């Protein structure tokens, strides 16, 4: 189901129901870009620590926009022995809610945009009909603003200005507006003595409207109802109606309800994420670290500085996660699957020893056909991801005695894969462990090498040719990690390099030590004014 | 005429012709955002100096993308006594040219995007079919890369690595590729002794292709032609053909031409701007400072730090500019026109004492109808801007004796308006003077006031209520300029404020002095490591 601003409100009950009844949920996001940094390979060094990787992703990826969110709910139907699925494809865009709402800026990366364009992505749907959203701070702020305005309207007094000369005389009208305001007062007086029900005052500035609210509420505490109305041309004017006490209350009640509704509209797509979060259901994604980071960043709160804090926030928002890329590159799947990209994985999981999962699209949802791929539409990718999970989960059931053909999302067999998010291109740390400390592999066969910027990978191969197989992980133009195949070669390399002029070698541990000292110094410098 | 990547190459001669024959050109740009800063009013302070304004616009506006460029050419037809116009609406997007081309990042501002969306802007056309472009540095770099690769191919030697161990043995093949390369050599030897004309080698990595080029050019300096071919699936492989000397030259010539063509394609839309620039024709725009800055930034070079340097670059790129917003807010138009926004200006310039200009759309161009406005399509806005210019120019002719009904773009009467770009919302400096020093208005009736962030404009009115009319120019939350109506009030205000605790007052001159000293210190600090 395609969900845009046009049909969001009416679709929300369907979305809530699908989440509520599901056994597990699959998600996927499409972004306006991936990496803001110099180049992706430098940003995903093969020997990053989890902390380094998190910091890089946070710094270089969070200013992009998550503008399409795919959700596919999977509910197992015992009687049919198959999953009933409900796929949703949400278009998301931070349309400013009103003139005082945050005017979000986001980065687009031309390669990503061009890639999506080549896949037939509909940018007009995002930008014209994307569903708005607020993060939690923005939501709280908006609620407070509304509350504050309501209080102002009730007692006819402006926000008290701390220490300001005007705080003692709330209805102070600057000289140049005095004429205007007395005319307005006259008009309202005329209204009260005439047989008319209401009067439209002429369009004016927000400041003038504020003065009018203050003055009129002050002068006419009873008998009238004041409201700002917008013309078709978006001009705003004030309408004053003659009302008795009952009518006045009724109108104020209606205004309250309208405000509440507007608030909910502004929170928009975040309500879907809140529902996913509150459901506590297993959320499955493919290579989902960036999806999780973006979702939290965009719909909950700015990401914390610290990896440990990020893990805690993640567990609050998504109490159970499963990454199919990590699962498929872990035993027993590792040996059976040679390409873990989503499209390839899906194909391989249809073949023996796996079995194509039986699914049926729920009534009222148009079904995806895996034969004519619609990859890179978030809703489709979420669907495929869910299929992959089902296939792998069921495969685990074949090891049981007696074998089971359906393994549910809460099975003990799945638990080892919970809350481990795939870390791309890190040689020796397969995943980020959201619920505990990360793996700390030994890196004493690794050298940190610096060299002139003209060097290529082949120059490094050449330099270490005596040591057999090496692995190069570029850091930047002039440095790289070189992993030797044997630890005892490290000292030999260090010795031979002692008199080299064009390049320098350091042991990994020494490099880490030096870097930590430097980072600490930098932080101290920053703290000083 | 709508121009996208699809029809750009075939439209270029039409564009060149239109520019070549025109009497003047009107332009307009649409951007992905306007201001990256905290809020627009803070960024356009009413008492900015031209330097400050330039610096702010450069800092907060240049990361947006100019993605639609309107050009309307106006050619006067003596016999018909009317202008023949040719409107063009170009969609522009920095599609990466190849895998090594710059991957441009640009910012989108949700309010701007939302505004364009509400005007029916077609984002898919921009992102899917936008014309690519390069600035001058990128063009030079690409030409050099192509040149360098050509030289490499010719002598079969890789880029010499400065100081690197491999520089002495250009065709060094790392161990793990030796097998692969000897198989390749074998295949080519087989080709030479067989009756086949060519052989396709298997797809491989770029590094392997590089090794193949180096080795094969080294081993077989004659008799073969080597070329990289791309399959439909975007896999690249090398094709080796048996050729005699003549055929080899012919193929190399063809390759050269293809490379030249690809280069021109990459320069893309910048060629239109180059043509406008070279033509030296009068370029008319409405409130065009941002258009000019973006055009130079995107298609020529990053904007210089210094305002004076910017003026010089601008004169090189656009030797004659005219801003209709500035013109319409200058004598003799100032008294006749009360709203200088483009849409309103166009309407007013159809009424007496002005006359609706006679124009005709050239054959083969679909004509715009000013009755059903298509504002905010760049091509239409450029067209309307040109109309406004013609109307105002002709009005100047009514002052001549005898009056003239047509005033040409090169008339002496227009000269006073050349090269003065409207400065938005600066109280006392109407324009940026591109060809000379800027106006330096006296500001000795101005006070710099700082106060608690709870203050509102009305608090400032209140504070200075004894001085009659004042003008407030907000700087940020806690400071503003206050212009008093009389200079001799400044000292009185200073005296009364002496013991104030909640706010502080400074004379404008003292403020400027203090700021300059601070800026200088900041710059010195930055220079120190
Ligand atoms: N005292 C008082 N001020 C109001 C009231 N409604 C609006 N205002 C103020 O008047 C200004 C104009 O309000 P409005 O016409 O609703 O347009 P807005 O600019 O979108 O808020 C705002 O800055 C509000 O602070 C009211 O009922 N009472
Ligand atoms: N020596 C030499 N190197 C080449 C030649 N053509 C390409 N290369 C190198 O081989 C690598 C692969 O080239 P190519 O197959 O054209 O794909 P590319 O990666 O898009 O440049 C590039 O990095 C080039 O530097 C050639 O004719 N001679």
Overall description:
2 copies of one chain form a homodimer. With 529 residues, chain A is of the alpha/beta class. Chain A has 3 domains: 2-133 and 269-323 and 357-384 and 410-433, Nucleotidyltransferase, domain 5, CATH 3.30.420; 154-244, 2-Layer Sandwich (Ribosomal Protein S8, Chain: A, domain 1), CATH 3.30.1370.50; 446-527, Alpha-Beta Plaits. In chain A, 42% of the residues lie in helices and 17% in strands. Chain A has 18 helices and 17 strands. The first copy, chain A, has helices spanning 8-21, 40-43, 50-61, 110-118, 123-129, 136-155, 175-193, 206-219, 245-267, 270-279, 289-299, 307-317, 324-328, 342-348, 378-397, 457-463, 489-497, 508-527; strands at 2-3, 24-31, 66-77, 82-91, 105-109, 198-200, 224-230, 236-242, 282-285, 321-323, 359-361, 420-422, 431-433, 446-450, 470-476, 479-484, 504-507. In chain A, helix 1 (8-21) packs parallel to helix 10. The relative contact order of chain A is 0.13. Mean pLDDT of chain A is 89; it is low at 155-170. Chains A and B meet through strand 5, helix 4, helix 5 and helix 16 of A and strand 5, helix 4, helix 5 and helix 16 of B. Bound molecules: guanosine-5'-diphosphate (2 copies). Residues 99, 152-153, 156, 158, 206, 209-210, 213-214, 217, 228, 236 of chain B line the site of one guanosine-5'-diphosphate (GDP).
